[in-house]
Structure formats: structure tokens, C-alpha cells
Amino acid sequence: MGISAKQLTGGRYQRLFYDLYVASALVVTPAVRAKAALKVCPAGSQVSHFTAAELWGAIVPNQPLTHLSSPQPGVRSERRGVHSHRLSAHAQAVRFRGIRVSSPEQTFIDLACVLSLVDLVVLGDSLVKARRTTVERLVGAVNAWSGWGSRPALRAVGYVRAGVDSPMETRLRMLIVLAGFPEPQVNKIVRDGSGSWNKRFDLCYPDLLLVIEYDGRQHADNDKQWDHDIDRREELDGDGWRMIVIRSKGIYAEPDRTLERIADAMRARGSRDVPKRFRDEWRTHFPGRSA
Fold this sequence. Notes:
Layout: H1 5-8, E1 13-17, E2 20-23, H2 30-38, E3 46-47, H3 49-55, E4 66-70, E5 82-86, E6 93-96, E7 99-102, H4 104-110, H5 117-129, H6 135-144, H7 150-157, H8 167-178, E8 185-191, E9 197-205, E10 210-214, H9 217-221, H10 223-238, E11 242-246, H11 249-252, H12 255-268, H13 281-285
Helix pairs in contact: 3-4, 4-6, 5-7, 5-8, 6-7
């Protein structure tokens, strides 16, 4: 027994794509959209690109389409809301929660031709953080790849690090590196005299006793967290550390000011590695308020 058009357009169902409906009570997630789209794609198709990254719990720019890759030659789905790609003969796929999806490493490679350098490093860091891959596995997959995206993937994977907590920390690190500074150490753990874990820094230059951290608005909005941060910074001062705190405007609106602050702090700490002139590449990825 079928379902009439009147029933489909009533309140019991919701449309995902052309001729594809689900119950109105169902919460529509990327996985639900992916499963639905695969039903109308050629055999051997797989979830890929942005949608694969979402399924892996990684960070990519928001966009409204469901991305699939289909074998070639063959007919690709042209439904509204679906972006169909040609599937490379060497693309790697796995089964994840009943869905055929590009592997985490393949997802990174596929998006190398689509994302900017910084967004691609954010993707790599977040895949590692989500424990979907490791830096070593990602590097190995990129080194073995010779198809489209190999060059940008190879450059970006060289910046992927383990232990990164947030995409804003990645962006801050990339701002620093692209301007020509030495790369700060990620996820530095300081231990006390007994060898026990004492402090952890997002980014730091240990030789300079200089810490650079990103603070989101939630730190200022949470009294308990804010009190903890104040105590921590006072303790750092007592131990001889200098901390620079960067907020979102320091990355999106005033990146030049952020670089100057870091340069001034490094000079005050006696560093000889401060670039005399910032490299220009950072301006491409962090244009600031002038853009």
C-alpha cells in the first residue's frame, strides 16, 4: 500500500530531497540525509567531502549540501540539495554506522582542493582530536596519494598536530606561523618537582616562558571559570611565565595587532627569532577588518 501525495504533503512527513521523505518526528541529521541520498545514487557510491567530515565529527565550514561520490563512468544524482562528485578509482571508503563513507584520511584529501590552507589544517586537527585518525596515518595517506589535491594536502598535513583543543587554537597557530614566527609548541604540559602533571598550555615557547592562549567568550561569561583563569594567571606570574590572551577579534578583526603583541612579548623575553618583517601570506587567510 502506497502513500498518497496528500499524505506526503500533510504533517506526517518531511521532505529531504525530491521524492525522498521521512517521518516528521525524525530528527534530521547529516547521517539521515546521507542515508536517504545514497538510496537514489548508483551502486558503489559513498558519502564524501563535507558530509563525510560532519559524520566523522570534524570541523568544516558550514554549507547546506549533502556530498556524495559516485563511480565513473555512470550517472550522478542531480537532485537539489545533493552535490555529486566523481569517485576516484583509488579513493578509500569504510563502513561507519551502516553508511559507506570516505575514510577520514580520504576526506582530508578530497577537501584539499576545496578548502583554504587554514580550514584544511582545522579539519586535520579536528579529525585527530575526534580520534578518527592520527597525524601519522594522515601523513602516510597524503604521501601515498598522487591524484587531485595532492599538493595542497601535502602542505596542509605538515601543519596538523595532535592535542589541539579547538579550531580557534588552530587558526591562532596558523596566523603565527604564516607570519614567519617559529611554530609554538602545542599542548605543552608542565610537571612539578615530583613529575606530576601541573599545567597545560595551548601554545607556548618554553624557552621564553611565554604562553599564548585563545580565550572564547564562555570564559568571561562563566564566573567559576573566570575565577580559575585569574588564579592560574597569577600563579604563572609567580613562576616567571608571561601569558598573552587572544580573543576572537584578535584573529578575525585585528590579526596585525595580535602579531605585534606576540612580537613585542618575544623581544621582551630576549628572543632573536622575531621576524624583522612579517611574511605576507598571513594576510591572505586573515585579512582582518580592512577586508
